[in-house]
Fold these 2 entries.
Entry 1:
Amino acid sequence: MSDQKLKRGFASDNNSGVHPAVMEEIMRVNHGHTVGYGSDPFTARAVKLLRKELGEDSEVSFVFTGTAANVLGLAGVTRSWNSVITASSAHIEEDECGAPEKFTGCKVLTVDTPDGKLRPDLLRRHMHGFGFEHHSQPAVISISQSTEMGTVYSVNEIRELAAFAHDNSMLLHMDGARLANAAVSLGLPFRAFTTDAGVDVLSFGGTKNGMMYGEAVCFLKPGLAEGFKYLRKQGMQLASKMRFIAAQYIAYLNNELWKECASHSNMMALELEKRIRMIKGVTITQKVESNGIFLIMPEDVADRLSREYFFYPWNEELSEYRLMTSWDTASDDIIQFADRLSVMMSEHR
Amino acid sequence: MSDQKLKRGFASDNNSGVHPAVMEEIMRVNHGHTVGYGSDPFTARAVKLLRKELGEDSEVSFVFTGTAANVLGLAGVTRSWNSVITASSAHIEEDECGAPEKFTGCKVLTVDTPDGKLRPDLLRRHMHGFGFEHHSQPAVISISQSTEMGTVYSVNEIRELAAFAHDNSMLLHMDGARLANAAVSLGLPFRAFTTDAGVDVLSFGGTKNGMMYGEAVCFLKPGLAEGFKYLRKQGMQLASKMRFIAAQYIAYLNNELWKECASHSNMMALELEKRIRMIKGVTITQKVESNGIFLIMPEDVADRLSREYFFYPWNEELSEYRLMTSWDTASDDIIQFADRLSVMMSEHR
Amino acid sequence: MSDQKLKRGFASDNNSGVHPAVMEEIMRVNHGHTVGYGSDPFTARAVKLLRKELGEDSEVSFVFTGTAANVLGLAGVTRSWNSVITASSAHIEEDECGAPEKFTGCKVLTVDTPDGKLRPDLLRRHMHGFGFEHHSQPAVISISQSTEMGTVYSVNEIRELAAFAHDNSMLLHMDGARLANAAVSLGLPFRAFTTDAGVDVLSFGGTKNGMMYGEAVCFLKPGLAEGFKYLRKQGMQLASKMRFIAAQYIAYLNNELWKECASHSNMMALELEKRIRMIKGVTITQKVESNGIFLIMPEDVADRLSREYFFYPWNEELSEYRLMTSWDTASDDIIQFADRLSVMMSEHR
Amino acid sequence: MSDQKLKRGFASDNNSGVHPAVMEEIMRVNHGHTVGYGSDPFTARAVKLLRKELGEDSEVSFVFTGTAANVLGLAGVTRSWNSVITASSAHIEEDECGAPEKFTGCKVLTVDTPDGKLRPDLLRRHMHGFGFEHHSQPAVISISQSTEMGTVYSVNEIRELAAFAHDNSMLLHMDGARLANAAVSLGLPFRAFTTDAGVDVLSFGGTKNGMMYGEAVCFLKPGLAEGFKYLRKQGMQLASKMRFIAAQYIAYLNNELWKECASHSNMMALELEKRIRMIKGVTITQKVESNGIFLIMPEDVADRLSREYFFYPWNEELSEYRLMTSWDTASDDIIQFADRLSVMMSEHR
């Protein structure tokens, strides 16, 4: 596939561009001088909007990337001798090139999970060595909502994990790079499955759902992350012209743009699922609960298809692939993609 | 001063907004899907433009902030047991909250300098302990161009520092957060006082000169920074929607927008200098060679003035203050500011 | 159990003291002045003796602890964006409180293994993401010889792992905290199952086998770990009075003291195994190939027994315990311990 | 000079061996088994003895080296965004290969001082940027007692620094690698110029005064360094056979061995000073208050002399050299050294 064509594919929800409403707000704040580094009125407004979603006690700080939001959020509530427990498939384990370890000094412990979701019983293997100085001290359980497998935790599942964490004097961290997709999937406001469900630290993302750049590190309870402002600066994540991140969040939260985008994206995923399920020889391997579809198809079909559409292999041994829909995926994209896959499958046999 | 007014002040060149031409290019690239993380054609084009400025051998990578560009550029060419030598007033020493030490593990050694500029004879005090395992091994000399004091290194001064560094098996790093202002001040293309003058690693900034966010780490000679792509990701500086940083550099380098902005900014500084020099009781403490003016004025005058204009104290003991002009500073801003200062000074006596 | 009694137990081979021959050599080097930090003739001699064992190309550096030997050995051959793959039960994963992550910045990836030993097929799940900047780059496979489970790799098993590592452009690291026990178990000189079997980096320990303190980081091939002397100093592991570590290695390697001690220790383990196997209701869970015995016994028996002998639980869920013999374990200790266990078991029913 | 000769020189107080009383105690604890990692009765006793010296509230932990004691002591009371302020000549700045920066992430800020001693007025240049997130937050003032220049702080000088630190919400750290020499010089018990003078964190050394290895990190006030036991393990400084470090401290503190050794060493320094002052053409540059003598002599004389005695250049530009006496320096060593220097000086003219 040629990059130049800029055809909408299913590689990642960050291959899409910026939603017009976000762009408009960026332009709106672009006049005159304003104080740098987040002391401006736009940032104050964006923080206020996030607090409205997450609770008045939440402390919100903007950073540039999802990796940064995760790493700095974790750094804020750990010391170097701690460990963070997560799923083997978690972004902080698989896709951040060791940034959590490098910056926090902590050990990242993993458990295998078939659907990307953690459950207390899976975590027990790491619940030992507390107080024993030879052993990294477990301090945080980190989950992704929605998960890297496109699945979504229910409120009860999150509550259960939060209780489990707190019972062990640990905190619950949520990687919310695709938080809006989860909210739409659950049909709940953000707060219901974050703050109110016991989550302590949240990465609240938007780049995968129509924003340009910028994520929010949210400490959902008072007293967490003393000194976080220094951590952000030392972590090279303090934006000088912060108003332009703030503008994006203002656009994203105003008029529920996040919901509009994520609803569309999730709906496209369901439509794509429906069409793929009708194609013989292709297997969908995960519940489609947000905007990701995981499927097994013959390797040579995948190769052929990938010359027309950009998408990623997930598990090469199983010939499993990932498709992501986005806020701008069109019904036609879905139809055409499914058609091509269908044709290739029939030619394959 | 109320933030809300958004009056143009002299606090920092990053209090200004984004140049319309930059904004336009951002909008231009915002259509359709493109590969994330810098494998897109826009990034390729921006890199090509930077290579044209800096030499075909230069390796260019985009990051988010000036601090990140400095830290990752230094990390690319050091091991943790090295030291980096710089001016006491350097950004990497004073204004990055220890990010260089935290991320690289290196020691940052400083020398005092009256004008923000290093000279070989100032550096000699740190030229010892080579090969001695008890001592951090000096590996990099880091200079800012233009400096934090608004001064500008001549080509010869840079050449001399590069030769000194290379003679000691060290590298020369340049923090170019205000590189364009230096280029305009020297009347030279970038290459003449970077690559061709012996600089090895460069932070090529634009945010302080009309861009929104994004800086470029440039290794100017082949073979430096093996593995830098991993370092950038681990450093939490890999943008998913990289095309929007690329777009800014395309706008910045096309039609010499950088020159237009920096010329204006430097000219405004000279005009401001001229007017301030006419005010009795106020002393300008540094040569005005780029877009910064340093002045000593009575503390109570500064207090009064700062209720109308936002600017920073530089040295509180000396009652020294810093004024920065920007690409959007208007002549009227200058005139009004100088008038207010003049009035306050006369009332002061 | 009262600490004060100093009864020989089975808690760890580091609960024993220092072998008299080691103590004697320490006293022998204690006269007059000698250069500090390892430039002394005793250190030169100790290094020579180690090179005789491991090959003339090996580079040997002394540090204080086994954790330090592992961490600095790994740091010498990695960059922060790398990963190290090891067994879930490995010391670097379970017992170093995150020291590898903190100091190297690397990710430590694990695989479960029933006997503490890695095999290529177990490692495959981590053999992906090479060249992909989002993913920590696998650089080292780390094995323990003998393992934390008391098992011992055969030469062929090591060769196979080395070949697998090298085929993937990775290195093979060996944690040899109990290297002598493995050598005795295999009936081979050190070199046969380290350097000659393809191991690249070795922690050569002695503290668990009659020494007082001090371990050796050994790079077994030329060109590894450039700058290691700085790494050791920065890692806080450079001994000023190095001659006293050197003396211990001289004693340890002269007259094959290591073999005498490890042979005894291993033999005691076999004797203990034999006696325990005769006790009904107690299960030995691992092959006894060095000086560790793993057994399952009823929890209340273990509690009772631990009031008389100090030893560690291994897996509390399984009621599995670890017993370690040492260079100074006496036959009587074995007999009495087995007797007590036997009595308690019979009373348990 | 040949290393092999083991002639007593003046290179460093760590070129000497171990005092017989220390060796004897090491042998005394070497029987039977005892719990590892510091839970043994010998360690308890050594800690008790140190608490007797420093106050019952002090928390004492043993590590291996002076560098480790400094770095971990500082790590215990800082977060990565802090800075530590010290003298340019301090061990943590000059002689630890960046270990403080690497492990703590903190910035080390320095001030020049003619005699190795800090004073509040020297520190003021770094007393800024509090609360400003761009700037490393000053958290600790670190002094050496006695200093690297052989000078000794008076109790009042320490009090003044402690007050200054505490007034700025900072702590006072003391590198006591040569603490005994200072105590003897002041004629005071340790407590008088540490705990009682306001010091918060102390590295209490003994290796330079007759011990073999091992230093003590002492937090002198309750509540400092929560989690330090994890920090020590993660810092690779937890000794398995801790009883052998403990034994040394027991010997060192019992019967005031520290005083005997340091008194002798200091006295030898004074004798050496007296004799050197009588030699024309040689200048002593620092007050001789502990066991170091700094002198300027012609470079060729120094070269000749260094073929007979091992000692270090201090400032090559000034042709300044350092001589250190030790607990085992003999009067004859002094006489012979001074004679040789005298002869060489006369031949020099």
Note: Chain D touches chain C through 59 residues (CB under 8 Å).
Entry 2:
Amino acid sequence: MSRYAIGLDYGTNSCRSLLVDLDTGEELGSVVFPYPSGELGILTDPSDPNVARQQPRDYLDGMVAIITGAIEQARAARPGFDAAEVIGIGVDTTGSTPIPVDAEGTPLALTRAFADNLNAHVWLWKDHTAHAEAAAITEIAARMRPQYLAKCGGIYSSEWWWSKIWRCLKVDPDVFAAAHSWVEHCDWLPAVLTGNTRPDLVKRGVCSAGHKAMYAREWGGLPDVEFLAALDPALADLRGRLYEEAFPSDTPAGALTEEWAEKLGLKAGIPVAVGAFDAHMGAVGAGVQPGTLVKILGTSTCDITVLPNSATLGDVPGVCGVVDGSVLPGHFGIEAGQSAVGDIFLWFVNHLVPDSYGATVGEKFTEMERRLSQSKPGETGLLALDWNNGNRTILVDVRLTGLILGQTLHTEAHEIYRALIEATAFGALTIIRRMEEHGIAIDRVVNTGGLSIKNATLMQIYADILGRPLQVAASEQTCALGAALFGAVCGGSVSLDEVQRNCCRVRDLEYRPIPENQTVYHEIYALYRTLHDAFGVAEWQGRLSHVMKELIGIRQRQRA
Amino acid sequence: MSRYAIGLDYGTNSCRSLLVDLDTGEELGSVVFPYPSGELGILTDPSDPNVARQQPRDYLDGMVAIITGAIEQARAARPGFDAAEVIGIGVDTTGSTPIPVDAEGTPLALTRAFADNLNAHVWLWKDHTAHAEAAAITEIAARMRPQYLAKCGGIYSSEWWWSKIWRCLKVDPDVFAAAHSWVEHCDWLPAVLTGNTRPDLVKRGVCSAGHKAMYAREWGGLPDVEFLAALDPALADLRGRLYEEAFPSDTPAGALTEEWAEKLGLKAGIPVAVGAFDAHMGAVGAGVQPGTLVKILGTSTCDITVLPNSATLGDVPGVCGVVDGSVLPGHFGIEAGQSAVGDIFLWFVNHLVPDSYGATVGEKFTEMERRLSQSKPGETGLLALDWNNGNRTILVDVRLTGLILGQTLHTEAHEIYRALIEATAFGALTIIRRMEEHGIAIDRVVNTGGLSIKNATLMQIYADILGRPLQVAASEQTCALGAALFGAVCGGSVSLDEVQRNCCRVRDLEYRPIPENQTVYHEIYALYRTLHDAFGVAEWQGRLSHVMKELIGIRQRQRA
């Protein structure tokens, strides 16, 4: 008799499933469902580039498609496959992605009254409309409750729970008033599957609560009423309609309802794990352990590591979150990340790469990689900042933008693409350095996510810039895999250790730094860091006239 | 009986002619000849983007094509036209564009031994290989002969005569040794037409000599032997094989030879004027007078004005040159400019604009202009530096590069194009401010060159940023027109005043600044100037963290 679990991974533009054999690690089915609404699944507002919303119906339509699809694939792959041997489901999503819901737990966007109102839809993680609210929360928390801030890197972000809800209250009081409660996307889906959508029944995950909603056991859960009232009395009032306790994902959110079991072709009553964010589940799926940094390289990135919760860990300025139990039970989950990585490349290829590189986005990337892989570090003379979507770690500031310098009259698109890749790698190095400076040792880096699998050129540049070997997780779906493992574990019949051992592997191909590239990048990183601090740190004061000249010098040396 | 003159304008990528009626100003013929060699007429070196050379044969092939073509057109336009009524020829070229020649005056590139040697070819104005030599000349002149530097803005440029010749001596001693002398492109062509190519017979123009070769009457012509020997004894030795005196363009370089007269269909013996640079001739063709700034908007730009040489004029730091007689006889010619303007737009459209804007370069520009003309200043949130080819005025530094900041994940190509236009306008404003700070009044701005005629969107942005009305010269060929006027004048039968009055007009359409745009650009210029000084001025020290945030603030305000 086999044991299977299903993980569901809800990303920015699509959701996907993974059906895994918990004893062999074999992945028997995986289906992707692109969200049909908006532009690549995102509802935007032409008058404000900060708006990013989603349609909750897309999530439900996707749910059926990706689970039934995965089961079908498993039947094809393994003739004896029996869906009744699926012992649990786990779910991860992006976040903080709050959904305003009514008293029944129905998203307002699915009610007739608010079907056309963007503010009643899902506030996607990368919605940046709430920067003023984030700044105000940071300022008020610094004054009233510095301990709240310390746990999330010292600066509260516009991408997070309270900023967005407060923003909604300010710009659309009708939506705020109609929302009986707010539910994280990752909590809503398990609630739907288990019939527990009524806000007081939704089992909330500690991952989203701790990393984004300032929840911690040590101060009694969510921020206290006095603090919330200092933001707005309506938020203090909302607190009572949210939740008291949040749980790690080895806890069940409930049991699969008859109705959904029938729709999905699964056994009713199997446990559905408490939801968590994609990156945290992905880290588990990639085999995170103390000393291992998991980098999830996608449209944005997350860098996740863990430390036993018996360790002493001071505050890590600019590192977005340290939350007990958010990744592995019994460990601090430490989360950092970059607000845009793949998204920067997609922006570039969609808006600034001529068709001479190819007719499609895929062809353009392939041709640019072919051409840039023939050049050496520094040959472009270019240097970029990876801030087209702000900087999450270590500056925690969405009011930052992209920068490219070093262009001549000969600069070509693939050279700029290289500079953009390098910029994201310099950003990644800045995060690792900040962790190490605060006593979080990184012995091993395991990468996962689309870019780590598809872009060998990028991976080599990352190895050269990070200055350490980079492993790649074997699974192409580490987030969904992590979710599946929690789906299995939350029923209590199997341990996380055991399923991680069975299912989390790395590939044979490892990217090792090339010493001469490392040397050049070491020089260029110093210039990156100068620009980073000059444009990103309010207190910075200094000189910049050497930057262009040193880049020209490096270019000449490398081309010679 | 009519009086005509022919002007020849040798640009960066092509040469063109203009045949003008000196009494009516009517332009009866004009032909363009794109240089056939290299990439758009420029010989490049893939290993060094600073290299820009040309093939002198292209100039001679062009000469025949554009003169005979213009005569043909004149015959078609005016049945009674008689080429014998052409009373003179004038020539302008880019510069400093020195040509190494043998003892007969033959360019080394046209000799068998050096036909394949890039260093034996024409060193085009925008060749930037000699930056180290330029820096050394600046340093040695500052110590030994500060007066030399004062006349050329305080910094000697890699684009100029001595930098390039010294560079050749260093990197290719064989070419240097084989070169009996060096001749500016603008001096070589009149010498060819008049049979005076032997180096001691070539009549050198004061425009190129004064602006680029540190020539001035007050110190006895070219830099003295002691100074040149401090650079390299071989340069001191070369001095004796160059020239003692240089002349303004109302002087004849000689008379058209029988051989060329026959080839061209003109009367032998008509005078050919001493050559000058395109911008200086263009300023004359656009009607330059004291108080009038002529802006020649092309691949690069030149800003030219004049001041009676009876006026007192101190040094103007960073303004490339103040030379008596280089524009109008009896006036100081004052020259500034931007190393790349149209070239930046061409670089952008050729390398970074997707085909969704159009299939051709022309279509892409049209569509980008259509889209950007619908937006307001500041809406892009972008800010650029116009330094892809270095900064000629006021920083006089080729070791600078382009910069674009403010990109989000939504930034589109036409928005960047707008930011690039704005950057060049901010650069233009910086030049005007520098002139005014040093007592050179600018009452009137007349524009000429391709961009001033073809790009109304750009012209309106320029008017908004420069904050003054902009006129456009009526002639599409002001450089060639100025050359033709000197061709007419150098024979002595007609005055420059008279032919300028007859031939130099402005168009009815004038671009007037829009007050609300001016206000926004005033704010953005302060940020431009901060970046300009931060990256361009060695002594600058300060803060930059406000730049991205202020741009975001302006963007939000303008979009609202």
Note: Chain A has two domains: 4-277, 288-439+523-560.
